[in-house]
Amino acid sequence: MAKKTVTIDFAKLAGERAEFIKENPWLIPAGLAIQMIPLAMLIHGHVKKNIYKKKLQIEREKTKQLELQYQNDHPHGHHRHHSHRNGGYHNFDPTAPQQL
Q1: What region, left, alpha or beta, does residue 38 occupy, with left being phi > 0 and alpha being psi -120 to 50 degrees?
Q2: Structure pTM?
Q3: Using an 8 Å Cβ cutoff, are 82 and 88 in contact?
Q4: Where are the transmembrane segments (predicted)?
Q5: At 72, which helix (H) or strand (E)?
Q6: 9-28: buried (b, 16+ CB within 10 Å) or exposed (e) per residue?
Q7: What pLDDT is stored for residue 3 in this prediction?
Q8: For 6-41, what is each residue's pLDDT tens digit?
Q9: Of 6, 4, 22, which is closest to residue 14 (Cα–Cα)?
Q10: How far apart are CA 48 and CA 88, in angstroms?
Q11: Dihedral-angle region of residue 89 (phi above 0 means left; psi in -120 to 50 means alpha; beta otherwise)
C-alpha cells in the first residue's frame, strides 16, 4: 500500500473562511461569546475560591484566639470539682429550714 500525502492549500482555505464570515457576520460575536463563557466561569471560580480561603483563614485565627484566651483563663487545664460525699452525687432533695 502506498502512502497518501495530503496537501492543504492554506490560501484557498483562508479565502473560503473569509467568504463564510462575510456571508455570516453574526458568527463573530457569537463565537467570541461562546469562548468567553468558560473564561468567565474560570475567573469567577478563582475569585470565589480566594474569598472562601480568606474566610477559612479568618475562622481558624478566631479559633486559635479563643483557644489561647481559654488557656489564659484556665491556666491549670481542665480542673473539675467532684463531690466525694454520697458517692459523688449531690442530694438535691428539699430540706427543712434549720433554726439558727
Answers
A1: alpha
A2: 0.45
A3: yes
A4: 26-47
A5: helix 27-73
A6: eeeeeeeeeeeeeeeeeeee
A7: 83
A8: 888 899 999 999 999 999 999 999 999 999 999 999
A9: 22
A10: 54
A11: beta
Residue 7's alpha-carbon distances to 3, 10, 17, 55, in angstroms, are 13, 9, 18, 58
Query: Does the pLDDT value for residue 47 go beyond 90?
Result: yes
Residue in this structure with the C-alpha cell 489561647, named with its chain if needed: 68
Whether the pLDDT of residue 53 is over 70: the answer is yes
Question: Looking at this protein, which amino acid is placed at residue 59?
Answer: E
Residue spans of the domains in the chain: they are 12-71
How far apart CA 26 and CA 34 sit, in angstroms, is 13
